[in-house]
């Protein structure tokens, strides 16, 4: 009888840590109890859209054997198994996935705010699709079309106004749609560059279903950052905060310019407020910085993030659950990644110029106050954090 041999579907949790991110959210996927029909055991899997899962079976809850792999695009999937399988229990799991898989990703929504937006991609680790690791701005033959825009809700102010050129997919939450204006083009590289307006078939889906887990603070000893009240001059710029060497550091109020030389993780507890005309964070060549923002708000204006290391993997902003607001207000280019799933993210301070955002972001929401070109670095799929 089915209840004896197939009466339990066991949930398997998968956890993969990197840079304080840990995928332990058990609502991410689940199996319903098996159903025997016409000699076939049917398992119903509720999962993330477009992600592959492995079904395992066991007769004793100790030894597990993979029996099926499912990579369907649907959120809810039915998997049929031979009823003669020697198993009484089933579980489902998946391998760690990249945190960053799109140029822009949000939990709640994206407000283009009538601004001109372009997205595309490149691969900083592939000389065929980069300019010595940099975005190939003047080499369109090396640019790619994985500049996806995804949201678990829908694009606010959507694509109906402004000029939008999305080289990639647009995905919204289940059942949500959006309207586009006469100047919008969404599709692959050939579609967009040919000036074809509208959405290319196959480049919009309304099945977004991804869990963005909270950031977990690394368990380590944090050391105070050196403060120079009179200022420390480096390469013509003046810094009050200086980190020289590898390690884990903390600062309460990051409200003056910061120089980083080394591979550094920095915890900010009270606020980030770089609002002076020349305020900025400078990451020296060969260095890297991961900011862990415990503070409620972060305002990055002035000269912004000066990433002289040159790659998106060299600057990471991780907003903890307490971090609910981020503003990248300086009208400057940006190279790095932002992961803050509880934060409203405002990008740009207005003006008519267009700036480049190289890397990727995942936040609660996004509102654009400036014109931006978003260039997703596909190397983040390999070298970036996982969930």
Descriptive tags:
387 residues, five-stranded mixed beta sheet, mainly beta, disordered N terminus, 34 strands, globular, six-stranded parallel β-barrel, 3 helices, Immunoglobulin-like
Query: How many E strands?
Result: 34
Give the low-confidence spans.
Answer: 1-27
Strand order of the largest sheet: 25-27-30-32-31-28
Total helical segments: 3
Helix and strand arrangement:
Layout: H1 2-5, E1 8-11, E2 17-18, E3 21-22, E4 30-31, E5 35-37, E6 40-46, E7 53-58, E8 65-70, E9 76-82, E10 89-93, E11 104-111, E12 117-122, E13 149-151, E14 154-156, E15 164-167, E16 170-173, E17 184-187, H2 189-193, E18 198-199, E19 204-208, E20 223-224, E21 226-234, E22 237-244, E23 247-254, E24 258-261, E25 263-274, E26 280-283, E27 288-293, E28 297-300, E29 304-307, E30 315-319, E31 325-328, E32 334-347, E33 354-368, E34 371-377, H3 380-383
Parallel strand pairs: 1-10, 11-13, 11-14, 11-33, 12-15, 12-34, 13-16, 15-17, 16-19, 17-18, 20-23, 22-24, 23-25, 24-26, 25-27, 25-28, 26-29, 27-30, 28-31, 30-32, 31-32, 32-33, 33-34
Antiparallel strand pairs: 2-3, 4-6, 5-6, 6-9, 7-8, 7-10, 21-22
């Amino acid at each position: 009888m089915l209840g004896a041999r197939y009466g339990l579907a066991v949930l398997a949790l998968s956890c993969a840590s990197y840079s304080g991110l840990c995928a332990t959210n058990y609502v991410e996927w689940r199996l319903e109890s098996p159903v025997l029909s016409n000699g076939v055991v049917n398992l119903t899997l509720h999962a993330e859209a477009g992600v592959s899962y492995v079904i395992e079976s066991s007769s004793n809850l100790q030894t597990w054997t993979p029996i099926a792999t499912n990579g369907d695009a649907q959120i809810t999937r039915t998997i049929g198994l031979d009823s003669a399988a020697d198993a009484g229990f089933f579980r489902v799991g998946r391998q760690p996935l990249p945190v960053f898989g799109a140029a822009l990703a949000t939990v709640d929504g994206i407000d283009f705010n009538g601004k001109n937006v372009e997205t595309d991609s490149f691969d900083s680790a592939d000389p065929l699709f980069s300019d010595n690791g940099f975005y190939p701005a003047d080499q369109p033959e090396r640019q790619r079309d994985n500049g996806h825009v995804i949201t678990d809700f829908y694009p606010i102010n959507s694509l109906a106004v402004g000029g939008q050129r999305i080289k990639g997919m647009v995905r919204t939450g289940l059942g949500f749609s959006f309207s586009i204006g006469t100047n919008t083009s969404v599709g692959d590289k050939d579609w967009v560059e040919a000036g074809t307006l509208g959405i290319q078939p196959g480049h919009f889906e309304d099945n977004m279903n991804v869990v963005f887990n909270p950031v977990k603070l690394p368990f380590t000893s944090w050391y105070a950052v050196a403060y120079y009240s009179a200022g420390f001059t480096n390469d013509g710029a003046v810094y009050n905060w200086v980190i020289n060497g590898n390690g884990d550091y903390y600062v309460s109020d990051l409200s003056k310019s910061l120089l980083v030389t080394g591979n550094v993780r920095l915890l900010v507890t009270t606020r980030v407020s770089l609002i002076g005309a020349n305020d900025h964070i400078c990451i020296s060549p060969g260095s890297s910085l991961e900011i862990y923002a415990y503070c409620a708000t972060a305002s990055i204006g002035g000269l912004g993030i000066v990433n002289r290391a040159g790659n998106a993997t060299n600057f990471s902003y991780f907003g903890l659950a307490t971090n609910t607001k981020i503003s990248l207000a300086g009208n400057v280019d940006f190279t790095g990644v932002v992961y803050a799933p509880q934060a409203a993210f405002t990008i740009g301070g207005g003006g008519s110029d267009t700036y480049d955002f190289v890397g990727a972001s995942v936040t609660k929401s996004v509102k654009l106050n400036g014109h931006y070109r978003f260039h997703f670095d596909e190397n983040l799929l390999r070298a970036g954090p996982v969930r």
